[in-house]
Amino acid sequence: MRGLFSTIFLLLVALMIITTEAGKNKKEKGKGSKGASDCTDWRFGSCVPNNGDCGSGLREGTCNEQTKKLKCKVPCNWKKEFGADCKYKFEKWGECDTASGIKSRSGTLVKALYDAECQPVMMATKPCSTKNKAKSKGKKGKGKGN
């Protein structure tokens, strides 16, 4: 009986060693196939949309003599003015300017991604809402028998 347990134990140890070695080789292959480099000073350009002036696109990066492209996205709303690489914290919208029909708010730069050149303060504007926000939410007079 001891002989059987010894044989099973040796087989398990051998199997663990083989599995560990196979895992190491697989990891090393994965590293080489992804094109990993020693370069640490990548410089990326701005995101260039595939079509038009917003939407999905590519950003090209260079480091020494190497280049690579990353997927990116330029917002298709009022944020496209400063792009996706400049992150701002915005205040609440101000009151509507009745003369121009526009309201505004300012944002302070929080983070610049990919070494983007961002303005420290950004102003955003939008047309004033034409909806009357004081509308009642109750539905009076709509039920049966009214």
From TrEMBL:
Basic residues bias (residue ranges): 132-146
Signal sequence residues: 1-22
Primary location group: secreted
InterPro entries on file: Midkine_heparin-bd_GF, PTN/MK_C_dom, PTN/MK_C_dom_sf, PTN/MK_diS_sf, PTN/MK_N_dom, PTN/MK_N_dom_sf, PTN_MK_heparin-bd_GF_CS
Entry keyword annotation includes Ribosomal protein: no
Functional summary from the UniProt entry: Secreted protein that functions as cytokine and growth factor and mediates its signal through cell-surface proteoglycan and non-proteoglycan receptors. Regulates many processes like inflammatory response, cell proliferation, cell adhesion, cell growth, cell survival, tissue regeneration, cell differentiation and cell migration.
The protein, known as: Midkine
Source organism of the structure: Ictalurus punctatus (Channel catfish)
Taxonomic lineage from the root: Eukaryota, Metazoa, Chordata, Craniata, Vertebrata
